[in-house]
Write a structure and sequence with these properties.
single chain; 209 residues; mainly alpha; 10 helices; 63% helix
Length: 209
Amino acid sequence: LLSKLNVTSIHANPFPGLRPPQRQSDTAPLPRPSPREDVNLHASLVSRELQRALNKRQFKEALGLADKLIGSLSKANASSQAQGYWQRAAIKLELKEARQAEEDLRRAVSLDPESAELALSLARFIYRQGRAKEALEILEGRRGLGRMQAPLRARWLSARGVVKLGLKDESGARADFTLAIAADAHAACLSGPGIEEQGRIGPAYFDAC
């Protein structure tokens, strides 16, 4: 729903999730789209304009479009709404509106509490605001870590390791880095030779994961 449109030919359906019209006579009335199809179509069009504004780094315009996108998703499922709030939070961060960005991130997590990606985004944001203990509570309180896909589990454990380093828990950080490497040894952000290297990398390392 929130991805960029990818029209490969004039015969392709540019709106994933919408049914193409069936062959009918020129005089037959056009079928009325369902409410869900209306939502998907409008959100797809707004999302395309939003991506264009972001590509041009026109963040104030993008913010208005993000507001519009969230409005268009009001009748969509909670997961889609959560992605809209996440997108707006990212834009607000670019505009240095940290408090409002956090509100949107928390709203996104509340709408889709099963999304580990959203919870990880919130924990990373809180850590960068200097609230390491609060970030660690999110990262340690997550259930189902073993059911995450390996790359996401590696990022989660790595982020938790960085937070523990910030709290001077080197043994805990080392354990999390070891588990992260075991989960996904090919992750670029896990390529340092040891915990000392990870510690020196600091915020850049955290952002890479």
